[in-house]
Design goal:
196 residues; three-stranded antiparallel beta sheet; single chain; 2 domains; 5 helices; alpha+beta; 3 strands
């Protein structure tokens, strides 16, 4: 089912339109979902150092839900993978349904969050599914995460000098000759390369 933006409704007067719009927004805002996701108006990225609701825009999105996948300038592979997977699961960015909001921040430089309009029921249910999946297992897409992790490991291995490679191979029980190869040896893991 494809979700579309709400179509305009023709009303007989400006006052009727205002009453209808307010009533519709109140109904959407009061709609209850089985979720622990934060609402956009409650976003507090640094756990108390920023005032609540600082970041929402005046487009009355404070009642939209924040998907529990965010990323910053310094995010590791897992956060980046989950963020991109969540966007894919939700059907991509769509104005007034799924939006990515990016903010400058004094700590991590910038951060991005995904917000979902609760009026878009199908997409909101997908967001709740993401929340549920992450409560059971921290990875939304194992293949994507594994690929990103391998790429980062290969980059770190490629940037290491030969002496450091030899030392790491000795430490991990690999042949020192494996240090000459461009591929990461089989007994060298992400945590050995300082990724975690």
């Amino acid at each position: 089912m494809i979700e579309r933006e709400p179509q305009p409704i023709i009303v007989d007067s400006w006052a009727s339109l205002v009453r209808f719009t307010i009533k519709k927004e109140e109904m959407i805002m009061n709609r209850q979902f089985e979720t622990k996701m934060q609402k956009y108006g409650e976003v507090q990225p640094t756990g108390g150092l920023d005032p609540t609701g600082t970041f929402f825009l005046p487009e009355r999105q404070e009642w939209w839900y924040v998907v529990p996948c965010s990323q910053t300038r310094d995010s590791e592979c897992l956060s980046q993978s989950n963020f991109d997977a969540a966007i894919k699961i939700l059907g991509g960015e769509r104005q007034n349904i799924v939006e990515v909001h990016r903010f400058s921040h004094w700590g991590p430089g910038w951060f991005e969050i995904i917000i979902v309009n609760p009026a878009a029921g199908v997409t909101m249910n997908k967001a709740i599914g993401i929340e549920s999946s992450l409560s059971d297992y921290p990875v939304l897409d194992d293949d994507d995460y594994s690929s990103r992790e391998w790429d980062e490991m290969s980059q770190i291995w490629g940037d290491m000098n030969l002496g450091d490679r030899v030392d790491l191979c000795k430490e991990r029980g690999e042949s020192v000759f494996a240090a000459r190869h461009e591929t990461v040896p089989r007994n060298v893991y992400a945590e050995n390369l300082g990724m975690y």
